Backbone:
């Protein structure tokens, strides 16, 4: 769904699409909640996050999220977001913005159309920015720390080549972890 603009009302939002149609999403008690599911094909337990948006007139629940498959932030039905997995409230982010602001910030991400990047504009960056005004990825911070630790164990090697790889790995992992930690 390509959104060109929107108008927020007390009980919902009308989104105006680029094909000159509009869609009304009604808010409910879950609107603005940060939700997630486990990301498939990962051994690191990475969470895919989104913003619960509301329900349309057909009762379909909608989510705002950024995913590599969409190449940017989109609004789409929760069944697309879930990818057949359980969806639950994300506990890693404590919102400082109210639910309405979180939704509006999510809609701004959609309209901006910034491309997905794993390191600087992934699903967690979008929801943390909408929920707290600070863009960071809790999972990248954890992954960066893990990579740094793996690199440090390589420093114990007798091989000069393995130690060099260890230093590089520590530098990369530390940079990822530091970048995300500083943006919290």
Residues:
């Amino acid at each position: 769904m390509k959104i060109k603009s929107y108008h927020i009302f007390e009980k919902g939002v009308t989104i105006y699409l680029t094909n000159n149609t509009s869609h009304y999403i009604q808010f409910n008690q879950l609107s603005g909640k940060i939700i997630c599911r486990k990301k498939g094909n990962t051994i690191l337990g990475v969470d895919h996050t989104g913003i619960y948006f509301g329900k349309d007139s057909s009762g379909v629940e909608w989510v705002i999220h950024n995913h590599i498959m969409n190449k940017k932030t989109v609004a789409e039905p929760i069944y697309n977001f879930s990818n057949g997995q359980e969806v639950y409230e994300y506990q890693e982010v404590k919102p400082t913005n109210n639910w309405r602001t979180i939704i509006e910030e999510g809609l701004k991400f959609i309209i901006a159309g910034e491309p997905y990047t794993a390191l600087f504009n992934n699903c967690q960056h979008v929801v943390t920015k909408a929920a707290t005004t600070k863009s960071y990825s809790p999972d990248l911070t954890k992954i960066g720390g893990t990579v740094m630790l793996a690199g440090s164990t390589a420093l114990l090697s007798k091989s000069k080549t393995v130690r060099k790889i260890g230093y590089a790995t520590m530098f990369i992992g530390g940079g990822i972890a530091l970048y995300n930690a500083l943006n919290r």
In short: The radius of gyration is 19 Å. Helices lie at 78-82, 99-112, 123-132, 138-154, 160-182. The CA atoms of residues 34 and 51 lie 5 Å apart. The chain has two domains: 3-116, 139-182.
